[in-house]
Amino acid sequence: xxxxxxxxxxxxxxxxxxxxxxxxxxxxxxxxxxxxxxxxxxxxxxxxxxxxxxxxxxxxxxxxxxxxxxxxxxxxxxxxxxxxxxxxxxxxxxxxxxxxxxxxxxxxxxxxxxxxxxxxxxxxxxxxxxxxxxxxxxxxxxxxxxxxxxxxxxxxxxxxxxxxxxxxxxxxxxxxxxxxxxxxxxxxxxxxxxxxxxxxxxxxxxxxxxxxxxxxxxxxxxxxxxxxxxxxxxxxxxxxxxxxxxxxxxxxxxxxxxxxxxxxxxxxxxxxxxxxxxxxxxxxxxxxxxxxxxxxxxxxxxxxxxxxxxxxxxxxxxxxxxxxxxxxxxxxxxxxxxxxxxxxxxxxxxxxxxxxxxxxxxxxxxxxxxxxxxxxxxxxxxxxxxxxxxxxxxxxxxxxxxxxxxxxxxxxxxxxxxxxxxxxxxxxxxxxxxxxxxxxxxxxxxxxxxxxxxxxxxxxxxxxxxxxxxxxxxxxxxxxxxxxxxxxxxxxxxxxxxxxxxxxxxxxxxxxxxxxxxxxxxxxxxxxxxxxxxxxxxxxxxxxxxxxxxxxxxxxxxxxxxxxxxxxxxxxxxxxxxxxxxxxxxxxxxxxxxxxxxxxxxxxxxxxxxx
Length: 611
Hints:
- The chain has helices spanning about 35-45, 60-70, 75-85, 95-115, 130-140, 155-190, 200-215, 215-225, 230-245, 265-270, 270-290, 305-310, 330-355, 365-385, 395-400, 405-420, 425-430, 435-455, 465-485, 495-505, 510-525, 530, 535-540, 545-550, 560-565; strands at about 125, 250-255, 260-265, 390.
- The longest helix has about 35 residues, at about 155-190.
- About 55% of the residues lie in helices and about 5% in strands.
- The chain is mainly alpha-helical.
- Strand 2 (about 250-255) and strand 3 form a beta hairpin.
């Protein structure tokens, strides 16, 4: 339940509900009397301040949304900067700024569509590392970059030629992303990805989600290594604010006559923003006093040229770099990135649902989420970010720290991304945040995501040697095999370069290796449902009322009464009333009620489960 010091942040006279508000709430605000239902929903909520369907006040929502923006800033800035090397953009810094703006703009669009019409989870979308390898392979196959222009050769004509050169290379990436991401749209909205969910249990989710965090330790180390003083400062401050000072509140002016002072739990809600502000200020002082040497990524002026050269206003638009060019090799290479990103996102959905007070996502939510991620990737191809989009792990960590799982907060964060993606100077200002500060933030957040994955093991019998084998081998191989593939480029060597690239990308993706191996072992090694943790993991769906109440958070934002009244929607894999490809004998009624103890949940244990 929410603490008393945050009740004042909600609407006066309406204390935070223990469960998401739905159409089934009585007119007097009373909840159903079924104690099992209430206990089950409260268990999902845990110690959240705001669960998925609840919203803080508007000013708190803006601050919390901005915190999500700052959290995803490092990856959204760093990954495109890595791509600019192979795009040959060294001589066009203004275009680099525009490319970064475009990435934030598209990330905002993808996040809004995902959280509103996709999974409906509070999950942030952004540039994906899974697409970086295929993109670099496509560009390197196109040829090397020309030598950088010397100061005496930097004429307007020479710069214009360099601009034309990198735009042609970008068009190759755009064409590959557009076609490859159509595959993701198809496997999502046709329900193909949902078919895999019947094989996913706690022993598959745990190593997959844990590897999402563990696989990023190199990224966190690389970012932090620029200045461990700043990175350590962020680690200490986030830990201090979120764990030791989280009960401290500060009085702030109220916005109504009957509530002049509000007690705001600033350290509990905004630990990441506060840590960044303190560390950024420290970095500025050390930069001015030259304690941090020139050329160090810890200096606040390390990327000052982006701030200087960025326009005040620039609204990204489709085909701003030119017309996309489609090649077979490029498309096949990008499909590898699509598959790797898809597996990673499924793990992110489960992790996000767990920390935001939602049940494990059912078939239709995962189908819709993957389809909407494909749509977000298509937007990236149209606008020309050079990379596809995927779910961001670090923002799941923010939810776990702040205990704010509100969908509305992430939607406001998406609006902030779109706005600041159109205001060049403002976006460039935040781009001056030293990379080590971002690295310190990653150290905490990726660690939390790893812990979220391992927490799924609470349902599993860890005294079982079978379960220890199913958990340990995939977890270890998910680290070993990708490390080997990275250290031994070209080890996959067949007569088909496209096949080589696809296999290399998949085997270099930790979540793919660990998740697939865990699913195979868990579904082939004999074991009871109780031993595997399936009974405990899915017991929330033991009655129709529980299932209906739990899964309402995955309903579409409007039109649900009409959708439930039309039988046709039960056959659409992305519809909230989807009943599976294999129809059960007892079909739901026209009003969408679920008879005879059946559920529309992908986690049902009945032998006649829909597929």
